[in-house]
Amino acid sequence: MNTSPLPQTTAVVIVGAGPAGLTAAITLAGAGVDFLLLDRLAEGANTSRAAVVHARTLEVLEELGLAEDLIGRGIVVPTFRVHDGARSLARIEFGGLPTAYPYTLMVPQDTTEQVLLDRLHKLGGQVRRPYQVTRVADENAGVTVEYTDDSGATGTIRADYVIGTDGMHSVVREQAGIGFTGATYPESFVLADVRMTWPIARNEVALHLSPEGVTVVAPLPDADQPDRYRVVATLDEAPEHPTVTDIQAILDKRGPGGDVKVTEVLWSSRFRVHHRVADKYRAGRVLLAGDAAHVHSPAGGQGMNTGIQDAAFLGPLVARVINGEPQTILDDYETTRRPVALGVVAFTDRMTRMATLRPRPARLLRNTVMSLVTRIPAVRTKLAFRIAELQTR
User: How confident is the model at residue 2 (pLDDT cuts 50, 70, 90)?
Assistant: First the structure.
């Protein structure tokens, strides 16, 4: 925790120290821009949450000198397969993609954040916490940021620009008066990291379709015991903290059959999923990135990846403006990145609705169509390219 007094002025204030905020800070630190990275939490989150890093994100992290370190801490998964019970409907391979990273990397979000934080520290930056931003006002050729620390003391910072990476319930977005258009899925989602025996190879992410809902099982890295997996599943009403019994029941009903035995829940949660995009990414000197700008279904593991890519695009633009280039170049951020978010929301929404079909005729039609079209190599390649987010280059 860092509660030392904050300076009263800085070039850029970044609000929120998740992956997008850390990435933005790294780009500014690397460009020699003065900034403050504020976070409301007393310490960084220590749960795995988002666990998928796609090829395009690894390309972006390579430019920041981080890809190899992250790969060394994850598990490479080159295959994505869709199942209905024991039947395989579609197999998507990433191995033929035109990238140095032709795979999905499974690595817990807390590990990703630690890699980003270590790089920020090496560049001389830090996260200042806990500071709750309460007001953001674009005024008098700058931005006024008001905050409260954990003792209740208040303060004010003047900045040239503010970048809001403070999540779905973004104070920065709210203070800037930017709408967040979209809706909420009716189902709730279970998210759990477990230890279990699982009959599918650890080089595959498995999406299981069933009348009860959709379930995703993916391997997680563990050098000591290779039995750690991420489970994501839809339920009409999920328990607050899913237990071994809860996860076992889900996999018994929806999984591939065979030897499935959940032995331990390492961490679990439930959440409601929204699909929303900010009406604009910039209001004058205030900009949004990551979950403050877009949230969507976890289908395809696109969320954190899109946020990191947002920040890696935005940070250098802000640095260029701070160093004297015209503010108009900041318009490139929204025109480039907001269409990406709209595309991701539409894609993940289609995946989620397809995967959660309940009527039997609709499911039979879905399974037949999916099985047939994914036999076409061009279709499989296009899906792999889309999931890997390589279309955002």
Answer: low
For residue 168, give the amino acid letter: M
End-to-end CA separation in angstroms for the chain: 37
Amino acid at 43: E
Q: Is the pLDDT of residue 3 over 60?
A: no
Of 244, 315, 291, the closest CA to residue 64 belongs to: 315
Pick the CATH number of 183-274 from 3.30.9.10, 3.30.470.20, 1.10.10.10, 3.40.50.2300: 3.30.9.10
Q: Which of 381, 389, 221 is nearest to 312 (CA)?
A: 389
Parts of the chain belonging to CATH 3.50.50.60: 9-47+108-179+279-352
pTM recorded for the entire structure: 0.93
Contact 40/132 with Cβ under 8 angstroms? yes
CA dist list (Å): 319 to 34, 60, 282, 323: 9, 17, 16, 6
Q: Residue 325 has which token pair?
A: 């280039």
Amino acid residing at 208: H
SS3 289: coil
